[in-house]
Specification:
Elements lengths: L3 H9 L1 H22 L9 H5 L2 H15 L8 H14 L6 H16 L5 H31 L8 E10 L4 E8 L13 E6 L8 E6 L9 E6 L11 H8 L6 E8 L12 E6 L3 H14 L5 E7 L8 H10 L3 E7 L10 E2 L4 H7 L5 E5 L2 H13 L7 E4 L9
Parallel strand pairs: 7-8, 7-11, 8-9, 9-10, 11-12
Antiparallel strand pairs: 1-2, 1-6, 2-5, 3-4, 3-6
């Protein structure tokens, strides 16, 4: 427990974090990787370059500071981060490294304004926050290991099948090399792939949503090939999987993880909305819903650039034809000549109101601008926050 004086000091720094938070976290990562380059085997280099990881950490630090006297209020955020930490293999002994470099970054950015009293208070606060994460992560590690077919760390899987789904998305069917049982998962969860492409100095880890319902003897992930665009380089892992990994090859996976899942007790109609490769958790949810309750009212809307970028269209058509309770729609930004879709352009509220009801649970996933537009439309439609569910690919961002 923190003493009242420490809590007072931490809360007094919240306005400073709003202004300098990202500068502090950028300096933190720079310093930590210089002092501990081995951690580059864990962190996503692309998210570092694009500023996504520093932004996400700044938001997390800000939230912790603002709720330092009631940390239980941010437990849902803690659990989401802890799930990713477990999937990446973050260990308790790495937390002191983070704390040491975070305090150093605060001092470097704030200079004389970071008095000894403030640094001491943040040292105490970080210890409390780290203990919360370590405790939650220990529970998650234990649960993943004790799950039937579960495991700790990384397990070797064979690429049983590699299926091209569109010009940019390919599915990988993964079976355990040891032939033993694999852990089940909740629709919406992800697995983490660990690879070390030839010529790369470090291992690279990426989370990929499971793109089919649970209960199979394999896992399926559907990966978008991230090509170079403007200042953004090509995706190291996605291009490696597309170009180099073939059927029969081995991939290392950590057990399924994630907090973005379909509510198993859902009673209301469900509306699933995906953009691009954001279809992966949506397809898992769709299949699970209709396998467990074939009469459940489901609307599935998918947005893509055009038909060549649209993965699993035939698969969804087959499900729609087989289930009268499912209505599916396709939105193309710029369809090619002769391509059929239900709407040209983008999903907007007036059109959404013609194909779905506000009295539903909404789940959506896709690029951040896409999700921001969907979120704003649902808020404008007065859909209650508790019926709006979404997930970011990569570090958490803001949809406001």
């Amino acid at each position: 427990m923190l003493d009242p004086k420490t809590i007072e000091i931490i809360k007094s720094t919240v306005p400073v974090l709003e202004v300098h938070g990202q500068a502090i976290t950028r300096k933190f990562y720079e310093t930590m990787f210089k002092n501990h380059p081995e951690l580059l085997n864990v962190f996503n280099h692309a998210n570092q370059r694009q500023g996504k990881q520093p932004t996400a950490l700044a938001n997390a630090v800000y939230a912790a500071a603002a709720h330092i006297d009631h940390l239980e209020e941010i437990l849902p955020v803690v659990r989401g981060i802890a799930q990713k930490h477990r999937a990446l293999g973050i260990l308790p002994e790495q937390y002191p490294i983070v704390g040491e470099n975070l305090l150093a970054a605060i001092k470097m950015v704030l200079g004389d304004a970071a008095t000894d009293e403030i640094i001491e208070a943040w040292g105490k606060a970080y210890g409390v926050i780290a203990d919360v994460f370590i405790r939650v992560e220990a529970e998650i590690y234990q649960a993943a290991e004790q799950e039937p077919g579960g495991w700790r760390g990384f397990r070797r899987f064979i690429v049983d099948r590699k299926v091209k789904e569109s010009d940019v998305i390919t599915s990988f069917y993964l079976k355990p090399e040891d032939g033993e049982e694999i852990a089940s998962y909740l629709p919406g969860q992800y697995i983490t792939v660990r690879v070390k492409p030839e010529g790369q100095a470090f291992t690279h880890l990426r989370h990929y949503s499971l793109s089919t319902s649970p209960g199979h003897a394999y896992y399926r992930i559907s990966v978008k090939r991230e090509e170079a665009e403007g200042d953004r380089p090509a995706g190291i892992v996605s291009t490696y999987l597309h170009h180099d990994i073939q059927e029969g090859d081995i991939l290392e996976l950590s057990a399924p993880a994630g907090e973005f899942t379909l509510d198993p007790a859902v009673q209301l109609p469900v509306v699933l909305i995906s953009g691009g490769v954001g279809l992966t958790p949506m397809v898992s949810m769709l299949e699970t819903l209709l396998e467990q309750d074939p009469a459940h009212d489901v609307v599935y809307i998918h947005a893509a650039r055009d038909g060549s970028h649209h993965a699993m269209r035939e698969h969804i058509i087959q499900w729609t034809e087989a289930h009268s309770s499912l209505r599916s729609y396709v939105v193309y930004e710029s369809p090619a000549a002769g391509e059929e879709c239900d709407k040209i352009g983008y999903i907007d509220l007036p059109w959404l109101q013609t194909v779905a009801s506000a009295n539903a649970d909404f789940y959506f996933c896709g690029p951040t601008p896409f999700m921001r537009a969907i979120h704003q439309a649902l808020k404008q439609w007065k859909v209650p926050e508790e019926r709006i569910h979404f997930e970011f690919f990569g570090p958490a961002d803001s949809l406001d």
